[in-house]
Specification:
8 strands, 23% helix, alpha+beta, 3 helices
C-alpha cells in the first residue's frame, strides 16, 4: 500500500455537508459522482495532499444508509492507494484477511476498488484503490 488515498465520511445530506466542508477547508469540492453499484452519491474535497470523500445514500438499503442508521454520520472508511489491486487482494487473502470484494469493481473518482471486511481489521472498513489507466 502506497498511501492513504482518501477518508470516506458518511453523510445524510451531501449538499449541506458540501457547504460545511467547503467552509472548513476554505475551498469547494472538486467533483461529485454517483456510483450506482454502491448506492451512493459522492463528493470529493482536496485538503492539502489528502482527499475527503463524502458519501450519501441514494436508496434506503444501500450500505451507507445502513451505516448511518446503525452508527450515525461520521467516518465510514479509510482508503489506501495500491499499484496492483488484484495482487493486493491476493496477498491480503493469503495473509488471512477477509475481503468483501474478491474482485475489484468500478468505484468513484476513476478508481478500481475493493473492501476488506472490518471484522478482519479491528473494526475499520478498509478500501483498496487503484487508478484506472486511460
Amino acid at each position: 500500500m502506497k498511501k492513504i488515498e482518501h477518508i470516506g465520511i458518511a453523510v445524510k445530506d451531501i449538499e449541506s455537508s458540501n457547504h460545511l466542508f467547503a467552509t472548513l477547508f476554505g475551498k469547494e469540492h472538486y467533483k461529485t459522482e454517483e456510483v450506482e453499484s454502491e448506492g451512493v452519491k459522492t463528493s470529493f474535497f482536496e485538503c492539502g495532499p489528502n482527499k475527503i470523500e463524502l458519501l450519501q445514500a441514494t436508496h434506503e438499503d444501500s450500505p451507507i444508509a445502513k451505516f448511518i442508521e446503525k452508527k450515525g454520520e461520521g467516518i465510514h472508511h479509510i482508503a489506501f492507494a495500491v499499484d496492483d489491486i488484484e495482487k493486493e487482494i491476493e496477498r491480503l487473502t493469503e495473509e488471512g484477511f477477509t475481503m468483501i470484494h474478491k474482485k475489484p469493481k468500478q468505484g468513484a473518482d476513476n478508481k478500481l476498488i475493493a473492501f476488506l471486511h472490518p471484522k478482519a481489521t479491528n473494526g475499520v472498513l478498509i478500501e483498496l484503490c487503484q487508478d484506472i489507466k486511460k
